[in-house]
Amino acid sequence: MKMKVTYANQRSSTAPGAGGSPPHGRRYDRPMRETGDATATGGGGVREVKSAARTVDLLEVLAARGDRPARLQELADGLGVPRSSMYALLQTLIARGWVRTDVTGSLYGIGIHALLTGTGYLDSDPRVRAVRPYLDEASDAVGETIHLGRLDGLNVAYLATRESHEYLRTISRVGRRLPAHVGALGKALLAERDDGALPDGPYERHTPHTLTDRDALVADLAATRRRGYAVDREEGVLGIVGFGFALRYDRPAQDAISCSVPVSRLTPRHEEQIIEVMRGVRDRIESAAPGGRTEPQWR
Question: Is residue 98 located within the same domain as residue 130?
């Protein structure tokens, strides 16, 4: 598995004040080629279509900014695209609903068609459909917030969330991504893989408790394998502890579930209850997961 890392001196796409930093720790300060419409990718001779890649890059940047709209020059500079080309691309995407602009036409954000496409992904995925009822079951049993996430490179994308009965907002929501080393979901999935695939650190820090050193992360993943689940003690969000369980209906596991609980509510007895419930839910999900005989085998 080819893995990427966001280093400590690069800002996360989900960090407050990130100023349009790209997702996945990628940098968009490299100029994009202006000759031809395709560039080699090294993937068996298949060539990347430059205009399509540019469009995807733009949408990812806008999505990563959240509620912080971008200006034309900012996008052109960040993606290394001529201002005129960026303007034409933005106008095309606005007309099709993928990008929106304000009444002055000077600010740009992600459009509603991105939401419709993302919803289509969730609705069509047999794993997500199978797991959703169990998230309700787990949340009802422990009274805390339950997540379903999927590994995406060195990030985890959140696919479903069931909120705690005593609602406490966190930064992890459907469609968002966090670095896998930061939370219980990601560490549960990294523990299913060989440590040799982990890049060198230092890794991005989200709180004073985040594991930014490779050796520390390797030791934590070893402990995760021994326990059978991952623990995140305020590593992603201060005041929040998470317990993550890989779903092994795929090998290596691509999905995981987790329970997030405020430190203020986490007693030793409650922690034991959470682990017991989540283990049981994990086992039932794995037993009931679609066999895949009639479903496409996505990669």
Answer: no
